[in-house]
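User: I'm preparing a small set of examples for a lab meeting where we compare how different chains pack in three dimensions. I only have the primary sequence for this one, and I'd like the structure in token form so I can line it up with the others. Please keep the answer compact; I'll paste it straight into my notes.
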Amino acid sequence: MIIGLGAGLVAGAVVLGVGLVGRQEQPASGSVLVGAGDIAGCEARSDDLTARLLDDIPGTVFTLGDNAYPSGSLADFSECYETSWGRHRDRTRPVPGNHDYWTPDAAGYFGYFGDRAGDPAEGFYAYSLGDWNVYALNSNCDEIGGCDSGSKQYEWLASELRADQGDCSIAYWHHPILTAAETSGTDAVGPLVDLLYEAAVEVLLTASSHSFERFAPVAPDGSLDRDRGIRVFVVGTGGAALRPLGPPLPATEASDDSTHGVLKLTLHAGWYEWAFVPADGEFRDNGTATCHSVAGA
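Assistant: Understood. Below is the structure token output for the 297-residue chain.
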């Protein structure tokens, strides 16, 4: 695993290449997964713009943490998040960020989302979306007893991945494992990255960097692996103030630090499409890819 720290500033865009209990089944028609992280604050209202995008995009909404600023309190959710992304709560599958844990035990986050956020002591869960398996994970490892081998989340994920072997899969959590921003990641998720890679999971969605980045498929150490690597996205563009990116990393395929928006993924049997949908800028990014199992065949 690698966390990149940009030394300089690059303006604009870079495009170098193209308590849920058990498994919840979603209808095959709901094959769209759309969302972002770093979302709502009462001081700035860019989350209103991204919420309007969601109004016109059907499907399941994901959040990538730091959902309600500044501290993820129930008041932050009620007064800031509810007025924008809150109208899509019934179709949202969230994960928590570090700001959500500024309120002890992320009580505001779990109180607001209820069963949709999973067990409050864990904050991770899985569901099916069309032909895909989706793993909503908690990268705040220190808050839930760790993420290394032997931890509850690690052992649960290992079991889920074994059961789902051979299917197209996607995972998401808050902290980035690759980014050109000067932001805080966490090495603690390394064992989870290893599990995702070994199971040939297609995509990992992250946030925390208030920007958009798309990386070529990578191995856990951040090196290119186009045969079986994980395609990593950073989508910290949900509404919080954007932050500058440093120079692109070796695996960078597209990046932008000037546009709020959401990432729309359309999950088909054996392949997927992605599209960054802008709310207040000109940057766009889209493409398609085939699942490892299909590509190998």
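A couple of notes for your slides: Confidence is low (pLDDT under 50) at residues 1-11, 16-30. The two ends are 28 Å apart (CA to CA).

User: Perfect, thanks.
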